[in-house]
Amino acid sequence: MASDITITRAEGTWVVRAGGAVLGESADALELTEGDMPPVIYFPRDDIAMAFLDATDHSTRCPHKGDASYFSIVTKSRTLENAAWSYENPKDDVARIKDHLAFYTSDAVAVEQL
């Protein structure tokens, strides 16, 4: 694994909300820490209401994790462009995040531990 990336089980139950709706809740989330950046919570895809997410054409590449695919969150009042991402085929060293989603937090998206 890249020496500056650690993946651990996120303690407790985590929830992601957008536009007043709960998009997901999980007791099986992962916490990824990379260097000195804030930790990121990755939710198992099975714990997310995928009906609220639309895949986009946006992608990015991380030298340690691989290619990220992005999703927009569709709420009642607006679409939050590229607000979530997933590594569909992550590099072997971070394979635990496969089939997981992470979310950019903002005034419209909250990721919280219950």
Count of separate DSSP helical elements: 0
The profile of the biggest β sheet is: 7 strands, antiparallel
* Overall geometry: globular
Q: If you consult CATH, what is the topology?
A: Metal Binding Protein, Guanine Nucleotide Exchange Factor, Chain A
Structural class: mainly beta
Estimate what percentage of residues fall within beta strands. over 45%
Please, what is the CATH homologous superfamily? Domain of unknown function (DUF427)
Rg, nearest Å: 13 Å
N/C terminus separation = 30 Å
The pLDDT mean sits at 95
InterPro entries: DUF427, DUF427_sf
Pfam families: NTP_transf_9
Domain DUF427: 15-105
Protein name: DUF427 domain-containing protein
Overview of the structural elements:
Helix content is 0%, strand content 54%. The chain is built from no helices and ten strands. Residues 15-105 form the DUF427 domain. It comes from Lacimonas salitolerans. This is DUF427 domain-containing protein.
Structural descriptors:
114 residues, mainly beta, Metal Binding Protein, Guanine Nucleotide Exchange Factor, Chain A, seven-stranded antiparallel beta sheet, three-stranded antiparallel beta sheet, DUF427, DUF427 domain-containing protein, DUF427_sf
